[in-house]
Amino acid sequence: LAGMSRLRPLDGAVSLIRPMLTFSKKEILDYLDSLSQPWRTDASNFSTDLTRNRIRQELLPQLRENFNPQLEASLLRLGEAAAEMQKMTDSLTQRLAELCISAADGEIRIVPQKSLLSDTFPDGIPEFLWTELLRHIWRKNGFPEREMGRSEWLLLSQMLLHPNVSGIPQAHVFPGNIRAERTFSFLCLTPFSPARTT
Fold first, then answer.
1. I need a surface site. Which of 82, 134, 149, 162 has the fewest CB within 10 A?
2. For the chain, how long is the longest CA-to-CA vector?
3. Are the C-beta atoms of 9 and 15 separated by less than 8 Å?
4. Tell me: the pLDDT tens digits for 17-29?
């Protein structure tokens, strides 16, 4: 849902800011023309070796011509709706984090105990929200996400929610050397450095 954010920290004090995500290319170029402001086009934007360029140059024109002349406006509305859904999801995730996460001695504990959550979430908590909580923990603690694909998130959420199901491990090391271990009442996440062999 989140898609491309307007502000993304890169490292240290450096952030990538995208202030014009809600404007179309035509709107931006028309505005620059009105100011007689020259602009530079990145030559890599023309290479169809890149998936993003094939989408822009081949797929979107076909969709616009054959299905919806107002494609960009429709995509913008979809993006705005997704952003609103993401805001709600973030708010629920934050509340869930406040109720069931504790940290001490380098460990992060997630307690998915229904009795602790029933007042705030009387209808229960959908599994996707637990996965969002795990992603939230990863981001907040600076754990590496690059190699955390769908199968890794699925396994981690299964360890949290279904610890006694056959085939789901009680302990597993995830990318970035993040060890997850399921105890009787909680899932414990611990970053660690593997022992060196000589």
1. 149
2. 67
3. yes
4. 888 877 888 889 9
Structure-token pair, residue 76:
């913008």
pLDDT digits (tens, 9 = 90+) for 71-85: 988 988 898 899 899
Read off the pTM: 0.73
Q: Are 156 and 174 in contact (CB under 8 A)?
A: yes
Structure-token pair, residue 56: 């822009």
Structure tokens at 41: 């086009």
Two tokens, residue 27: 């709107």
Measured distance CA(23)–CA(109) in Å, rounded: 42
Q: What's at 182, amino acid-wise?
A: R
Burial of 49 (0-12, 13-18, 19+ CB in 10 A): exposed
